[in-house]
Amino acid sequence: MAATETRLLLLGTVMLFEPVNGYQLRRELLSWQVEDWAHVNPGSIYSGLATLARQGNLDRHDLVDGTREVAVYTSTPQGREEFERLWFAAVETVDLLSPLPFHTGLSLMPLIERDRIVKALRSRLANLDAKVREQLEAPRDLGSMPPHVGAMADLWMGLAQTEREWVANALGRIDRGEMGLAGDSTSWEAPADDPGWQMANDRERYRRLIRGR
Amino acid sequence: MAATETRLLLLGTVMLFEPVNGYQLRRELLSWQVEDWAHVNPGSIYSGLATLARQGNLDRHDLVDGTREVAVYTSTPQGREEFERLWFAAVETVDLLSPLPFHTGLSLMPLIERDRIVKALRSRLANLDAKVREQLEAPRDLGSMPPHVGAMADLWMGLAQTEREWVANALGRIDRGEMGLAGDSTSWEAPADDPGWQMANDRERYRRLIRGR
DNA sequence: CGTGGAGTGTTCAATATTGAACACTGCATG
DNA sequence: CATGCAGTGTTCAATATTGAACACTCCACG
């Protein structure tokens, strides 16, 4: 779990679906096609959850569900604070060659208050600008570096520019209430055919089992 | 060494500077500011070299340099083949959320023949186009996904577009012989003040020591 | 000359990651 | 009602990664 985005992702997903077991998380993340970007294979989910529990960011409940034993996780207050911290770091920190934390953060936006999202994105915008300026003003020892290195720097600048525009645009959309965030006038609702009802059932049962101990 | 870009980077850097020891590699990579992107801390260099040696991609020579023992590495024929394989995979494979293999590949361009670079970049261009088309034609269940997910897809498209243009442009530059690659009419030369002479000395000494065993 | 700080070169224990494999429950099929 | 196959939920040994710490040399400075 060196890659802090695994922490962020697991903590966030638990918060979205708690109480929840490892397999449900795996299924959910697969359905987000997260495996395409984050590197979450079954093993790292379970060990990541264990680590987060050991650190006091999650509570582990060993339930007996019917005949079956199942390990179900819920977030702790400390875990929710940790999530906020990680989320801010992921969204504010610019590293164009490791975009995963940022993308992970974006995908977990709904867990953060609207005002704080705006604050974090504005901060990212500033950081992007700073990095671009830094790059432009760098003592471009032209001639001292091979041409392909210069070309790579161009690519980097292009990516920074693209992201900058996207962030600015996103801030506009949020401002106009178009991002479906909590507190927007027209907050987004999941469609009615409801593919997640199964998990909602489990969740309710888990909740009762936790209470009844 | 799950991240295959560490393999690629180490193998390539050894090929650039062989015979070379772990510390020299570390210094060189630091000077490329590689630690900013790839995650190479001292430990992973040494264990990565050990792994590559165990697999027969590198030879390890335990030399006595003056009074000091030093572990010096050279590439094997198998290692050079492996490098080509890894390089092609890194440059051809499009994963916009893990740009490191591509960047690592770009930084090691000088180790690859010009024609093969062109081939790989053309292939990447095709793969980028394919992914973009796929994304556009995806059954955009508009309304079935929260708006922030759609916004993330927009970001992804923008990045793909930016990279596409850069690759097309780079192909043009290579074609006009502006990239300083081996075989270009005006191949690029390091400036004369020669910051690498120290390593060149060590290299020569290591070569003699290896021969004299 | 000793004392210490910077540079060189490497190891190592603690931790994380990988993905194959396990164990179990339905349940459909011949 | 065996057989096997898809789904559920988790563990584990092998491997990789981390970064602090080690051991050494060189050299400057009081």
Automatic annotation (TrEMBL), chains A, B:
Domain Transcription regulator PadR N-terminal, first and last residues per copy: 17-84
Xref: Pfam families: PadR
Name the chain's protein: Transcription regulator PadR N-terminal domain-containing protein
Give the species. Answer: Knoellia subterranea KCTC 19937
